[in-house]
Amino acid sequence: MPRLTAAYKLNLASSRHCCSPHHKSTTPQAEAAGANRDDDAMDTAGEVACVDFWANGFGMRARIALRELGVAFRYIEEDLRVRERSELVRRMNPVHRSVPILIHGGRPVCGSLNILEYIDDTWGNKARCLLPKDPVHRAQARFWADFIDQKVFSTQTRFLKSKGDEKEVAKSELLDQLKRLDEVLGDKAFFAGDEFGFLDAALIPFSSMFRGYEQHGGFSLNAECPNLMRWVRRCKERESVKSVLPDEDEMYELHKKWYGIE
Predict the structure, then answer these.
(1) Which residues contact 243 (CB under 8 A, 6 or more apart)?
(2) CA dihedral in degrees (247, 253, 257, 262; nearest 10)?
(3) In what order do the strands lie in the sheet with 16-17?
(4) How many CA atoms lie within 13 A of 163 on its CB side?
(5) Measured between alpha carbons, how far is 184 from 157 in angstroms, rounded to an integer?
(6) Is there a smaller number of Cβ atoms within 10 Å at the N or the C end of the chain?
(7) Strand 107-110 relative to strand 74-77, pairing
(8) Where is the GST C-terminal domain (predicted)?
């Protein structure tokens, strides 16, 4: 995997610790000054950075997981509203040229669920980890996380983009999928029991679009998925989650523009 590049150093130096999902740009002069000031720090083996876009649900997973395990990291904003990807993204993820990208000691880790496992493998311990210790429970967590990516996300996209009968079909499928997750959760505090874990981190970013689902589809998730909505409120009490999740109305407005929703 590629080591630190000059472009990476410049982008990393001009970023800040992820205390908010929104990013404010700096002037080229300020970026250059930051690069000169922080060059030595950028070469440390343990340096951690997360390249992402504030409204990217997949990237929110990584930022929440890092915060859950108390890992200090720098946040680098990659504006997905711009068609051309930055040099940093092209270098660190030349295959997909997508975010999120976790950069640890100059080496990139790509793919949101892959990043979650890497974070757990690297910084998890006996006292606190994300994946359950039991192999069967670990496999179940991975299965339902894959269900979210392969089913829920693709159905969300069809639901938001389609109209008429196709929209109604997609809405029904989306509700069925969310109800299935509601059943898996049951009356537990979190998906793995009493501790916030891997599957919670994988799903909670999608909740930032739940209000958008309701507005777009004319239904109530409190009525359709009561366990899931109680879980959302419980997750939002956690500092790791509430410091990362964006405003739900902003998320829906952004997706309306992306999908051409009137």
Answers:
(1) 18, 19, 20, 67
(2) 160
(3) 16-17, 74-77, 48-52, 101-104, 107-110
(4) 4
(5) 23
(6) C
(7) unpaired
(8) 134-260
Task: Write the CB contacts of 22 (distance below 8 Å, at least 6 apart in sequence).
Answer: 54, 246
Among candidate residues 93, 102, 103, 89, the one with its CA nearest the CA of residue 43: 103
Distance CA(153)–CA(212), nearest Å, equals: 14
Tens digits of per-residue pLDDT, 175-230? 999 999 999 999 999 999 999 999 999 999 999 999 999 999 999 999 999 999 99
Radius of gyration (C-alpha) of the chain in whole angstroms: 19
Provide the 3-class DSSP secondary structure of residue 220: coil
Which residues are paired to 108 by β-bridges? 103
CA atoms of 213 and 221, how far apart (whole Å): 9
Amino acid (1-letter code) at residue 161: K
Comparing CA positions, the residue from 231, 159, 161 lying closest to residue 202 is 231
For position 45, what pLDDT does the model report?
Answer: 52
pLDDT in tens, 50-81: 999 999 999 999 999 999 999 999 999 999 99
As a dihedral over the C-alpha atoms of residue 128, residue 133, residue 136, residue 139, rounded to 10 degrees, the angle is: 50
Q: What is the DSSP string of 164-211?
A: HHHHHHHHHHHHHHHHHHHHHHTT-SBTTBSS--HHHHHHGGGGGGHH
